[in-house]
Specification:
The chain is mainly beta. It has a domain at about 5-40: Rubrerythrin, domain 2 (Single Sheet). It is about 5% helix and about 20% strand. It is built from one helix and three strands. A three-stranded antiparallel β-sheet has the order 2-1-3, with no helix packed on it. Strand 1 (about 5-10) and strand 2 form a beta hairpin. It is elongated and about 55 Å long. The protein starts with a strand and ends in a 29-residue tail after the last strand.
Length: about 70
């Protein structure tokens, strides 16, 4: 079940809410836990994907992958 971060527009409180994607699609009524405001905005989260393959190397530019080909 994913976590979603929200920020209250009235008091600035940042809080986390956990619910299913299906619940989110139905349009939940969120309330700030600090000031009980309904004026909350969802914050964008960054996603970090770790790759455990030791042979992995980042892609290179150009047909032969030479340096200086991207600028």
């Amino acid at each position: 079940m994913p976590f979603y971060d929200y920020r209250c527009k009235d008091c600035g409180e940042v809080f986390e809410v956990r619910f299913t994607i299906k619940e989110k699609e139905t349009g939940l009524e969120l309330v700030c836990p600090k000031c009980d405001s309904h004026e909350v905005l969802q914050m964008l989260n960054a996603v970090l994907i770790l790759h455990d393959n030791k042979d992995f190397s980042p892609p290179t530019c150009g047909p032969n992958g030479g340096s200086g080909c991207c600028g």
